[in-house]
Design brief:
Layout (H helix, E strand, L loop, with lengths): L2 E3 L5 H4 L17 H10 L10 H9 L3 H24 L1 H6 L3 H27 L8 H8 L5 H19 L3 H33 L4 H31 L3 H16 L11 H4 L5 H18 L19 H13 L14 H13 L11 E7 L7 E5 L5 E4 L7 E5 L1 H8 L5 H6 L3 E5 L2 H9 L4
Parallel strand pairs: 2-5
Antiparallel strand pairs: 1-4, 2-3, 3-4, 5-6
Helix pairs in contact: 2-6, 2-10, 4-6, 4-8, 6-10, 8-9, 9-10, 9-11, 9-13, 13-14
Bound molecules: fe (ii) ion (FE2) (2 copies).
């Protein structure tokens, strides 16, 4: 019988931890003045790069598949650079200090330059677009992946929210999305992959030069994000909760940002990388930057934002498997329901138990599926040793009768559980108080 338990060493097993306090942090070694000075020194021209040799190599030295794979990958960057350039203005308005506003203004210039750089590459090397930004973006829009679309739609809505509410918690959440998730976790690792294989194969000299310049700019932007989030967190105790909430919302989409067409991993392996190598680097980068800002992910309030007890590469693997199974992220078909998927699903449910649930005695929740081919599972929440097992519990406190797909959509944040109960799609039976307890175990919002 399948059973899955709280991982040893997890936040749930250790219980709540003290906050980081105001001890010296890596962010303290960064100054806004130095970041600005580095921007002045690092200025470069996207217009002066000569793509003639790149265009020849693209035609003559890349295989058909390599062109297809590179175009898919570079399209994400082109669209992303345009989107981050467009969405930075409200950050400038919301930043509390002049030095922060000035740096963000330099960053907006950088992002525009990056977008121009990719637009030139797309037109002059790949032959896409008529030279205008709009035509270039239109030409590559179909390459955007499901997770990428979700993350960048959230960046758009975050900009609107920040215009309406320039408070420190809102700015902190916005920085977590822009500088930590998009720049540090997604873009920087992708840039590292691209510059590494182009250098190893000595390909695309102008594009490589541009990518190295972009990467240096991004390092500065990420350093600024770490510094600003650290300051905001020290100035306002609500920032950590806002960051945690944002990360819980968006991280489930990250597994589908670099989702190759048809999950065909050759789109990455043809350049010497695997999905989980890049994914692991992305997780590790996010963890390091959060720690540097004084907000280690293990100490953020509420349920874990990143599954505890797993290495970065294992986290990438689990995220990929859950996305491929149609559990988290954008579901592209019916969710899988084989025994391995169910074990993976309930293992993640155990890892999501809020360590500060406050329940005084072991409490068991049981899910009985209306689908005859999906077995019953139950979860027993206990201090430090929660576990989920296949089969019926002897004395469950609360039982749910629910369709498997609805259940998975609740776990994947595609269906509101309160609405599911209100509309009869999920029927609870047992101790009515236990519904309130469940909300403590898996708090929403
Ligand atoms: Fe950029
Ligand atoms: Fe950037």
């Amino acid at each position: 019988m399948a059973t899955t338990t709280t991982p040893a060493g997890s936040a749930a097993a250790r219980g709540p931890q003290a906050s980081a306090g105001v001890a010296s942090l890596p962010a303290d070694a960064i100054s806004y003045e130095d970041l600005y000075a580095r921007w002045e020194r690092g200025n470069w021209s996207a217009m002066e790069l000569d793509f003639t040799e790149d265009a020849r190599q693209w035609r003559e030295e890349f295989t058909d598949f390599e062109r297809k794979a590179a175009l898919w990958n570079y399209s994400l960057f082109f669209w992303g650079e345009d989107a981050v350039a467009d969405n930075l203005s409200p950050y400038i308005d919301a930043a509390p200090r002049e030095e922060q506003k000035y740096f963000l203004a330099t960053q907006q210039v950088d992002e525009a330059r990056h977008a121009v750089f990719f637009k030139r590459f797309m037109q002059e090397v790949c032959g896409l677009g008529d030279g205008s930004m709009a035509s270039g973006l239109n030409a590559i829009e179909h390459e955007l992946t499901p997770g990428f679309r979700k993350i960048f739609a959230r960046l758009d809505s975050m900009a609107d929210e920040l215009r309406a509410d320039g408070s420190r918690p809102k700015l902190g959440a916005a920085i977590a999305l822009y500088h930590f998730v998009i720049e540090a976790s997604l873009a920087q690792t992708g840039q590292h992959m691209i510059t590494t294989y182009l250098e190893e194969r000595n390909l695309l000299p102008a594009f490589r030069q541009g990518m190295e310049n972009v990467a240096l700019d991004e390092q500065r932007h990420i350093g600024f994000g770490v510094k600003l989030l650290c300051d905001l967190n020290r100035e306002d105790p609500r920032v950590a909760g806002a960051v945690a909430k944002l990360l819980r919302e968006v991280l489930p989409w990250t597994g589908q940002v670099l989702q190759p067409p048809g999950w065909d991993e050759r789109y990455l392996t043809c350049f010497g990388y695997t999905y989980d190598r890049i994914g692991g680097e992305g997780v590790s980068s996010l963890q390091t930057k959060l720690r540097s800002a004084g907000l280690p992910h293990e100490q953020l309030p509420g349920p874990p934002v990143i599954p505890p007890g797993l290495s970065p590469e294992e986290i990438s693997k689990v995220g990929r498997q859950m996305a491929m199974a149609g559990i988290i992220g954008v579901r592209e078909g019916p969710s899988k329901r084989d025994p391995e998927t169910l074990t993976l699903l309930f293992d993640q449910i155990v890892r999501q138990v809020n360590p500060q649930h406050g329940l005084r005695k072991p409490t068991t929740f049981q899910w009985e599926f209306t689908d005859p081919d999906v077995p019953t599972w139950h979860l027993t929440v206990n201090n430090g040793s929660s576990r989920a097992s296949q089969g019926e519990a002897p004395k469950p406190d609360l039982r749910f009768r629910v369709g498997y797909q609805d259940f998975v959509d609740i776990i994947g944040d595609r269906l509101n559980p309160v609405r599911a109960v209100a509309t009869g799609r999920m029927r609870p039976r047992g101790n009515p108080l236990a519904l309130r307890w469940l909300l403590k175990v898996f708090p929403r919002g």
